[in-house]
Amino acid sequence: MKYTDEFRNREIVQRLIREIHRVSKTPAAFMEVCGGHTHAIRKYGIPSLLPGNITLLSGPGCPVCVSSTRYVDQAIAYSRLPDVIIATFGDMIRIPGSTSSLDRERAEGRDIRIVWSALEAVKIARDNPSKKVILLAIGFETTAPATAAAVVHAYQMKTGNFYFFSAHKIMPPAMEALIDEGVRLDGYLAPGHVSTITGTEIYRNIPEKYGKACVVSGFEPVDILQSILMLVKQIEENRPGVEIQYKRVVKPEGNRAALQLMEEVYVLRDDWWRGLGMLPASGLGLRGKYARFDAEKEIEVEVEETIEPKGCICGEVLKGVKQPVECPLFGNACTPENPVGACMVSPEGACQAWYKFGNE
Ligand code: SF4
Prior knowledge:
Blueprint: H1 10-23, E1 28-32, H2 35-43, E2 54-58, H3 63-66, H4 69-79, E3 84-88, H5 102-107, E4 112-114, H6 118-127, E5 132-137, H7 144-156, E6 162-166, H8 171-180, E7 187-190, H9 192-198, H10 205-208, E8 213-216, H11 221-236, E9 242-244, H12 256-265, E10 266-273, E11 277-286, H13 295-298, H14 314-318, H15 350-357
Parallel strand pairs: 1-2, 1-7, 3-4, 3-5, 5-6, 7-8, 8-9
Antiparallel strand pairs: 10-11
Helix pairs in contact: 1-11, 2-15, 6-7, 7-12
């Protein structure tokens, strides 16, 4: 199959649904840890197509959702410095901080620019030599190579006024932490985009240490249903392993050039995840060679005391232990137009996906 239509083909979808219903006997909960999957699963109404013994859970797969309120507050504090330009990807701008957001700061005159690539931030720095340009570097292994390329470019071009404020995270520590915490799940629908970069070795612990199923999935209805069928078969045949459904994109060895670039630029560091707290070696900071671009080390700023949004249960939603509709603010005080918590801001956030597409 080569074209999108084939991955939405009604007959293939119906065949897969019938096969899942035929094979699935054991109650099982599968978690997706990719915001793209969260969005697609809700958009295509996948849960309503499955037998009642299969539950789908959304995990910590939306990058802006798992970033801390403290990170947002610090970005806001940087934006208030007189000689700073903030360069950010679009979703980040609406995430609520303790008392403000980047969107609100921009309306009040701070120089906050939305960029479509990390390299744009380097260009802004070169065009504005009297300013400090801080890139809000956010995302998992999917986006980390592109921001690493921007750091190398700034290094090569000797762009001394480019800074990097990292919230980059890697996925395996969070996947393992959820199981360690006792979240009830039987398998992971592993992230397709992350795996394109990393390959599949990073998931080895999921079956070998924890005995859970794991299938790397694509994003179309046929992809997701075929991945669920593969997960169901691993459970029913009691043979947990790591399999790739998304073979047209993901290779077991990943993308070697991207991995080398990440190795060149980043070091692992402990990082804080919304819902999961501080996880050892789960974030990416800059290596010594590139430390002069590190905003946290190079630009001093006072950050206000963190206040989490009252009543918001994003942390529990991101762990899959509560569903968005269990939040008392869902759909009334908290909507995509007026988000109270991070999970309602991005199309990849579970709360926004449930709000837009319903809970089936
Ligand atoms: S509905 Fe809004 S307030 Fe409630 S958990 Fe989701 S983002 Fe947070």
